[in-house]
Amino acid sequence: MVEKVKLGIIGYGAEGGMYAGFFRSKDARLNENIELVAICDNDPAKKEKVAADFPGLPFFDNYMEMLESGVVNAIVTTVPHYDHCVIGIDALKRGIHLLGEKPAGVYTKDVERLIAAADENPETTFAIFFNQRTNPLYQKVKQLMDDKAIGDLQRVTWIITTWWRPQGYYNQSAWRATWGGEGGGVLVNQAPHQLDLLQWICGKPEKVFAKLQYGVGREIVVENEVNALLDFGNGATGSFITCTNDLVGTDRFEIFGTKGKIIVEDSKKLIVKQLTAPEATLSEKMDMSDVMKIFMGQVDMAQFVTETEEEFTTVFGQQHIDVLNNFADHVVNGAPLLANGRDGINGVTLANAMHLSSWLDKEVDYNVDGDQYLAELNKRIAAEGKFEIRK
C-alpha cells in the first residue's frame, strides 16, 4: 500500500492527452488518491506541448528513465500495442504499479509473459483499462446473466460496426493497420472492449470459426471486416460481427436464454424480456389450439413474457475516470479491481483465435496454440518487410 498514486503517463497522443486532461479539469472528479506527476513521450515535439499544457511537470523522452527516476510509483501505457507488454513488464519488475491500455498485448505468448511478471511481483498492482466494465448498462447486463434472469445462455449475437474509418485515418502513420506495427486491424484496435465484454458477460467460448476480410475498400493489409461464429459448448452458440468500412454502422447486442432475452441497442438502451417459465416448459403445456390463438393475436402475451426498457446516458470520459479512481483506490486502500490486468488475455485469446481460424480456414480451439499463432503472425510481418519478427 502507498499513501498516494503518483501516476506517469507514457505516450502523449490522443489517449494519453485525454487522460492527462482529466487532471486539469475541475469537473473530472478524480479522487484524492491519485495525482499526475510526469509524462513521457519519445517524440521531441511533445516536450513543448507538455510544457505548455502542464508547466513545470517533469517530462521524460525515455520510459526507462521515468521508471527509474523515483518520481512515479504507477504508470499508464498509451503506446503502440506491441509496447504494452514490454513497458508493462519493465514497470512491474521495478515495483511500479501498472494500468495497462487495451489490448493487453497482440498475441497470447507476450501477454503470458506480462502476467508472469505480475505473478512474480504480487505486491505490485496490475490492472487494465477496460473502461466499459464501469458502464452501468453493461454492469447491469452482467448482473442479469450472473443471476440467470433469462436462464441459461443459448445464443449471443453482437453486431458492432460503428467503427467507420476512412483511408486518411490509416495514412496518418506508417505503423497503423500493419501486422508488424499494430498487430492487426479492427480486432486489436477498435473492438477489444467488445471482445472483453462478450466473455465477461457470457463466458468464454470453446471453439471459434471466423471469416475475415483484409483491406476491403482500403489500402491496408490487416482485417477490417470480421464475421465469427462461437461455440460455447452444451449447444450454446454465438456470433460476432465487426468492421471499419460501414459508414452507417450498427450496434446491437442480443443475448438469448432459456427463459428470455436481453437486447442492448446502440450501447444506450437495455431491453429485457423475461418468460414466466422456461421456454421448454411453456412449449410442453401448449397444444395446437393454443398456438393458433397466439398466431391470430387472441392471446395476451403478458401472461408469458414481461418486458422492461431502460435508457442509459454516459458523461464523456467518466468511465475512464472511474477506472483511474478504482486503480488508485486499489493501490492505496486495497479496493477490489474492476478489471484485473490478468483478464486482458481473454480478449487477446479470442482475437487470436479469430485470426488463426481465418488464416487456416478452419474451426480452432479458443485456447489457441500460442506458438502456431506467432508463427503465422510472423509470416505476415515478414511479408510486409518493414518490421521486426516477434518472439
Notes on the structure:
A hairpin with an 8-residue loop joins strand 8 and strand 9. The chain is 36% helix and 23% strand. It has 13 helices and 15 strands. The protein is an alpha/beta fold and 391 residues long. The model has no long low-confidence stretch (mean pLDDT 96). The protein is globular and about 80 Å long. It has 2 domains: 5-129 and 317-340, Rossmann fold, CATH 3.40.50.720; 133-314 and 347-384, Dihydrodipicolinate Reductase, domain 2. Helix 4 (81-93) runs parallel beside helix 5, helix 6 (136-146) runs parallel beside helix 8 and helix 8 crosses helix 12 (344-360). It has helices spanning 14-22, 44-53, 63-67, 81-93, 108-120, 136-146, 167-171, 192-202, 279-285, 288-295, 318-333, 344-360, 370-384, and strands at 5-10, 34-40, 59-60, 74-77, 97-100, 126-128, 153-160, 207-214, 223-233, 236-243, 251-257, 260-265, 269-275, 305-311, 364-365. The strands form 2 sheets. A 9-stranded mixed beta sheet has the order 14-13-12-11-7-10-9-8-15. This is Gfo/Idh/MocA-like oxidoreductase N-terminal domain-containing protein. Residues 138-262 form the GFO/IDH/MocA-like oxidoreductase domain.
